[in-house]
Amino acid sequence: QVHVVESGGGLVQPGGSLRLSCAASGSPFSFGAMGWYRQAPGKQRDFVALIKSDGTTGYTDSVKGRFTISRDNAGNTMYLQMNDLKPEESAVYYCYADRASDLFRYWGQGTQVTVSA
Q1: Tens-digit pLDDT profile for residues 6-22
Q2: Following DSSP, what letter does each residue of the chain receive, concatenated?
Q3: Around Cβ 66, how many Cβ atoms within 10 Å?
């Protein structure tokens, strides 16, 4: 059974940094793209960043230059370095991993990020 588990969330002051991790395990198949979404209370879940198996990355405009997504060589662990965080970026951050064979998407349970003084 595939498990996708996020970690690294917490409370940080405005302008601070956090590093989120996402570990995908239990699949006999390789993963294709992995990425992050976030959802604030009462709002829709929004795309944040992705990284493909070839290392290609993509970001939503509001985080470009501040967030960096990366992935380990095995391709099953992903990181999101978040710098200069803003209060409006407080949300539950969800990781996903796409099965390479058919693009079925696995989701993690989410990790809370709170940006507050």
Answers
A1: 999 999 999 999 999 99
A2: --EEEEE--EEE-TT--EEEEEEEES-SS-EEEEEEEEE-TTS--EEEEEE-TTS-EEE-GGGTTTEEEEE-TTSSEEEEEE-S--GGG-EEEEEEEEETTT-PEEE---EEEEE--
A3: 15
